[in-house]
Amino acid sequence: SKVVIRFLRVMQKHGYIGEFELIDDHRSGKIVIQLNGRLNKCGVISPRFNLKATDIESWVNRLLPARGFGVIILTTSSGIMDHEEARRRNVGGKILGYCY
């Protein structure tokens, strides 16, 4: 889906994965991802909790192992982005997942 593709683009922007390509098999499709060995853990948060711009810091402390290490990916009204960009733009949204 589009959400998965944008999630992968954020991971790619931060260097956790290499290139990825969509393979259309006339069903749900497949995604082939080039791993580069930087990814330690990646997870999704279900249900997608609402997140205010002021609550981002508490979720960072809860999900990531250290400060400045890893990203939390959220979906906002401005698109899918990492927690640092959401904090810079001062927007909240729903939490999708994390990776480090």
Explained architecture:
The protein is of the alpha+beta class and 100 residues long. The protein is 27% helix and 35% strand. The chain has 3 helices and 7 strands, in the order H-E-E-E-E-H-E-E-H-E. The chain has helices at residues 2-13, 56-63, 83-89; strands at residues 17-23, 30-35, 42-44, 50-51, 71-76, 79-82, 93-99. Strands 3, 4, 5, 6 and 7 form a 5-stranded antiparallel beta sheet that branches. A two-stranded antiparallel sheet has the order 1-2. Strand 5 and strand 6 (79-82) form a beta hairpin. The two termini are 22 Å apart. The model has no long low-confidence stretch (mean pLDDT 91).
Question: Main β-sheet, in a few words?
Answer: 5 strands, antiparallel
The number of E-state strands comes to: 7
Question: What is the rounded Rg?
Answer: 14 Å
Please bin the fraction of helical residues: 25-40%
| Overall body shape | globular
Counted by DSSP, the helix tally is 3
Structural class: alpha+beta
Spans of at least 5 consecutive residues whose pLDDT stays below 50 are: none
Question: Whole-Å distance between the termini?
Answer: 22 Å
What would the average pLDDT be, to the nearest integer?
Answer: 91
Order of helices and strands: HEEEEHEEHE
